[in-house]
Design goal:
It contains 4 helices and 7 strands. The chain has helices at residues 10-23, 35-47, 95-107, 124-132, and strands at 2-4, 52-57, 60-69, 79-86, 114-121, 136-147, 150-160. The longest helix has 14 residues, at 10-23. The radius of gyration is 15 Å and the shape is globular.
């Protein structure tokens, strides 16, 4: 079931996200987050009137997706950056695609014109997901981040919602 997140989901979201911080290059964050930090981030998204969704199965949060500010300059106000994370071990089941599709549908009801997916590369599964959802590959920034003693590229994917 996909639903709007609540503050009660913060601990599960932090747990999901912390796996990626500790074990992958998928996020460029390096310090673990706690539920208080997740609540602050949720409140920022909610205050913007944007969706922050969770996928729940049998009372367990399996994944989450949201869109937030892409850049802080005013002219970017109609362009958002998407985020999607699944609990470790749940990829490949279509849950991420369901969450992302629902996020896109909800964003179409806002003033969002363009959605940007930023993918730490290589991540073929994420790149394929963006292609399936109609995003266009917009370029790669080489050596954009440094984590786990190595340089990491980032791919940019764009979906114009209009």
């Amino acid at each position: 079931m996909i639903r709007n997140c609540t503050i009660a989901d913060a601990t599960a979201i932090a747990e999901i996200y912390n796996y990626y911080i500790q074990n992958t290059i998928i996020t460029f964050e390096e310090e673990l987050v706690n539920s208080a930090e997740i609540i602050q981030r949720m409140e920022k998204i909610h205050a913007s009137g944007l969706p922050y969704l969770v996928y729940e199965e049998d009372g367990v949060i399996i994944g989450y997706a949201y869109a937030g500010e892409f850049r802080s300059r005013c002219a970017y106000r109609h362009t958002l950056e998407s985020s999607l994370y699944l609990r470790n071990g749940y990829s490949g089941r279509g849950i991420g695609e369901q969450l992302y599709r629902e996020l896109i549908e909800r964003l179409k009801k806002t003033d969002c014109h363009s959605l940007i997916g930023v993918v730490a590369a290589p991540n073929p599964a994420s790149s394929k997901l963006h292609m399936r959802l109609g995003f266009n590959y917009s370029g790669t920034l080489r050596d954009a981040g440094y984590k786990f003693d190595r340089w990491i590229d980032t791919e940019y994917w764009q979906l114009v919602l209009a």
